[in-house]
Amino acid sequence: MKYLDEYRDPQLAKSLIERLRHRPFPKGEIRLMEICGTHTVAIFRSGMRQLLPAEIKLISGPGCPVCVTANEDIDRAIWLAQQPGVITTTFGDLVRVPGSSSSLHVERSRGADVRIVYATLDALQIARDNPDRQVVFIGIGFETTAPTIAAAIQQASKLGVNNFSVFSAHKLLPPAMRALLDAREVNLDGFICPGHVSTIIGAGAYQEVVDNYKVPCVITGFEPVDILQGISLLIDQVESGRAEVVNQYRRAVSWEGNSAARKLIYEIFEPADSTWRGIGVIAKSGLDFRPGWKKFDAAERFSMPAITVKEHPGCKCGEVLRGVMTPPECALFRKVCSPQDPKGPCMVSSEGTCGAYYRYHNQ
């Protein structure tokens, strides 16, 4: 298939839909998982699910960084916000995610100094502006955001800013892909791989998944033409019995990725076991501080105690993230849980699957 450069052309999107609708599916249903929250929202917003043939089943996976943050890490962030003299900074979506008994939003209403920032360097500036206060940044996200957080820590060290620290709840995506395949809960025929993450880790990062599991991986952009061509490329592989890494998003992603960004990440952090919401502990799927940078680790700076976690009864975010359940199958969806009163992060986040279903439920 010829790669398409006119990725915003609606006629090309229509042509790809028609080709998919009229092609045979001798092997029956093909199950493809997108593991990027931006892809999830783009698919719903475009009405793609409604237009694709019934044989193509799109499954939303653990691609929302806010959603995969474990409840215990939300509770730790809340504990940090409750400490005297602390300014807690984070990205917007995380503030409204409910923990066991509170949220950062609730703590702010109770007087905690919780501030939304748009970049980690903004949090560092707050620390410089408030030298008599401890400023904590709640670091979440995949390989895309980790370099910016590492850069802020590096800058804090250079400037001698000693009242700045980071609580690291970062996640690495390829280990989660392997965990999903090892669990065998969902029979997946292919992955629609994330564009943003892949700019950092490179297309080559998925080769191990292809080699060990024989599951094809296609990296795509975020326009309908991108995603539709990615789906076509995956189906071609499935129907022919091939499993390869294919980079549809060549205008942004290379095979090697961004080596400078990765070098920055691993100067500050090292892979560590990490807990994912709904999946559990995945080996080497998170980022912990290297010994030489521990002074910026909020968990150590504040001697964080063990925290008892209580999951919200009935919330099925974990099952949704694993692809074993769709949001409408959750008893809370729309009845108790809504964007105005979310019971779980999948409804809170702008990239969450439950939020996408809520807004585009007829699609």
Topology:
Blueprint (H helix, E strand, L loop, with lengths): L9 H13 L7 E5 L2 H9 L2 H4 L4 E5 L4 H4 L2 H11 L4 E5 L13 H6 L3 E4 L3 H10 L4 E8 L4 H14 L4 E7 L2 H11 L6 E4 L1 H7 L5 H7 L3 E3 L4 H17 L4 E3 L11 H10 E8 L3 E10 L8 H4 L15 H6 L22 H4 L4 H7 L4
Parallel strand pairs: 1-2, 1-7, 3-4, 3-5, 5-6, 7-8, 8-9
Antiparallel strand pairs: 10-11
Name its key features.
single chain; 363 residues; alpha/beta; Rossmann fold; 2 domains; five-stranded parallel β-sheet; 17 helices; 11 strands; 40% helix; 17% strand
- Strand percentage lies at 15-25%
Low-confidence stretches: none
The profile of the biggest β sheet is: 5 strands, parallel
What structural category do the secondary elements indicate?
alpha/beta
Rounded average pLDDT: 94
Alpha carbon gyration radius: 21 Å
Count of distinct strands: 11
CATH class category label of the largest domain: Alpha Beta
Total DSSP helices:
17
CATH superfamily of the largest domain: HypD, alpha/beta domain 2
- Helical fraction equals 25-40%
Instruction: List the domain count as a whole number.
Output: 2
Q: Strand sequence of the main sheet, in spatial order?
A: 2-1-7-8-9
- Specify the overall morphology: globular
- Distance, first to last CA: 28 Å
CATH level 3 topology of the largest domain: Rossmann fold
